[in-house]
Hints:
The chain is of the alpha/beta class. It has two domains: 2-31; 41-258, Zn peptidases (Aminopeptidase). The chain is built from nine helices and seven strands. A seven-stranded mixed β-sheet has the order 1-2-4-3-5-7-6, sandwiched between helices. A hairpin with a 5-residue loop joins strand 1 (47-53) and strand 2 (59-66). Helix 7 (192-202) packs antiparallel against helix 9. It is globular and about 55 Å long. It starts with a helix and ends with a helix. Bound molecules: zinc ion. The site of zinc ion has 3 residues, from loops. Zinc ion binds next to loops.
Amino acid sequence: MRYISGIARHSPLAQFNLIRIILALALLVSLNTPQVVRATTNPTVQTQVEIGRSVGGRPIIAERLGTRGGPVVLLTGLIHGDEKGSNPVLNRIRRDIVANGSKADVWIIRVVSPDGANRHTRANSRGVDLNRNFPTSDWQRTPRGLNFSGVSAGSEPETQAIVSFIRTYRPVLSIWFHQVGPMVDPHPLGDILIMRKFATVTGYPLVSAPCRGVCVGTATTFHAQTVPGATAFVVELPAKVTISHVERNLAAVRAVVSMLS
Ligand SMILES: [Zn+2]
């Protein structure tokens, strides 16, 4: 109090200068205080981004985990809304990365087709097979039915959301979980060593999935054509995804991520 009353005896200009010094000191102290403690102690970051909406207005959510600056990896499920076996697999992988981290910058899109998942249908709510709707060099219009490719390439908002995501983040690896297998479906543009590793660790055969209709305009082809050198492939999960299958797919994802530089 005596100190303050001492200041009070000084001229207004002296008081003003003293306050400026005190503020400058306070600023110095605040600048030297670490502001981003969490990022330095825990490299696993978690962000949820709405990358688009379905025809029915449902959000399509991408969750970011792992280490930013690492190789970008995309894991997806339910591009076909009636193939829900991907849920326990992607949930397990998510939990593993949250607990143990990953050197990769991992994005998980659990539900590419929220309308299809809601209706439990292969197609989206306009009857389009999203995995035939991508703007690839081989896209062509196929007859309405189980594998209808849409009225034009990239006509569906769900497709547009994924297209925009891949163009923005340019993953080096994408894995698309489908049913029903089990099998790992290799893509001719991908790194065969990565796909073979995934097949070996899961114990699934490495064979081309039979195409119902024409396999044009697929998400894997779009990714491989858009990001040169990227590997994109389909994993057909078995009809019944047991804990053993969940763990094998987790181990396979970890194994192929470790192969990325
Ligand atoms: Zn499928």
